Amino acid sequence: MSDWVVALSRGRVAEDLRPLWEAAGWHLPDLEGSRSLYFPPQGRSPGVIVARGVDVPTLVAQGAAQFGVVGRDMLAEHPDSGVLEVLDLGISRCRLVLAGQSPSWPDGPVRVASKYSRLTRQFFAKAQHPVEVVPLSGSLELAPLIGLAPYIVDLVATGATLRAHGLVEIRSILSSTARLVVNPGIWRTQAGGRSFVREMAAAKGRMMRGSA
Ligand SMILES: Nc1ncnc2c1ncn2[C@@H]1O[C@H](COP(=O)(O)OP(=O)(O)OP(=O)(O)O)[C@@H](O)[C@H]1O
Ligand SMILES: O=P(O)(O)OC[C@H]1O[C@H](OP(=O)(O)OP(=O)(O)O)[C@H](O)[C@@H]1O
C-alpha cells in the first residue's frame, strides 16, 4: 500500500498530471466525475486530496497531505507557505504576464487587475513605476473591457484568452510549471519520501520520452 497522499487541484493540474501518474503505473481517480474530495491510497497508487490550488500548500504544511502539486505561480505569490519544493513536474506550463489593449509600456501611474497582487506589486516596484492593484479572483480579461482597470496581470499559455478579449502581452513576469511540494517535517523524518520523489522523477522522464 502506498504511504503517500498528494493534495492537488481538480481540472487542469489533475488532467495534466494524469499521463505522469500513468507513466508511474499508478491509478488517478476520475476527479471530475466524482463529488469526493478524498481518495485513499490504493495498492501502489498514492491517495489524493482535492483542494483549491491556492490551498494546496496549506494542506501540505499542516500535514493533511504529505505531498502536493501546485503551480510555481502560486508558490511565488505565497512565498511563506511553509512547504519545500522538491520536483519541477514540467506540466501546466504557463507564464504570468502584464497585458493591456496596446503593447506599449504604461504612461504614468497604472491600475492593474490581478489575483497575483504580491507579484504585481513586486514587478512594478522593481520597475520603479507606481501601481494600484485591483484584486480580483477570476475573469481578469474582462477588467479592461468594463473599465475596471486598463491593465491585467494574469496567466497565459496559448494566448487565446487574451486575443479573445482584444488584449496583448506587454511584459512577461514569471514562467510557471507545476511543482511537487512536500511537508518539511516529513521530508526530514521519513526516508521513503525520497524514493517517492525519485519514482515521480522517473515517471516524468518516461512521460516526456513518450510524448517526444
Ligand atoms: N492556461 C493555462 N495553461 C497551463 N497552465 C495553467 C493555465 N492556467 C493556469 N495554469 C496553471 O494551473 C494552475 C491551476 O490553474 P487553474 O486555472 O486550473 O486553477 P485556479 O482557477 O487557479 O484554481 P481554483 O479553481 O482553485 O481557483 C495555475 O496555478 C497555473 O500554475
Ligand atoms: O492563454 P490561454 O491558453 O488562453 O490560457 C490562459 C487562461 O487560462 C487561465 O484561466 P482558466 O484556467 O480559468 O481558463 P481555461 O481553463 O478556460 O483556459 C488563465 O487565467 C487565462 O484566463
Written account of the structure:
- This protein is α/β, with parallel strands linked by helices.
- The chain folds into 2 domains: 5-92 and 177-211, Periplasmic binding protein-like II (D-Maltodextrin-Binding Protein, domain 2, 3-Layer(aba) Sandwich), CATH 3.40.190.10; 94-174, Periplasmic binding protein-like II (D-Maltodextrin-Binding Protein, domain 2).
- Helix content is 33%, strand content 27%.
- It has 8 helices and 11 strands.
- The strands form 2 sheets. The chain has a 6-stranded mixed β-sheet with strand order 2-3-1-4-11-5. Strands 8-7-9-6-10 form a 5-stranded mixed β-sheet.
- The radius of gyration is 19 Å and the shape is elongated.
- The two termini are 32 Å apart.
- Adenosine-5'-triphosphate is lined by residues 9, 11-13, 52-53, 71, 73-74, 92-94, 155, 157, 176.
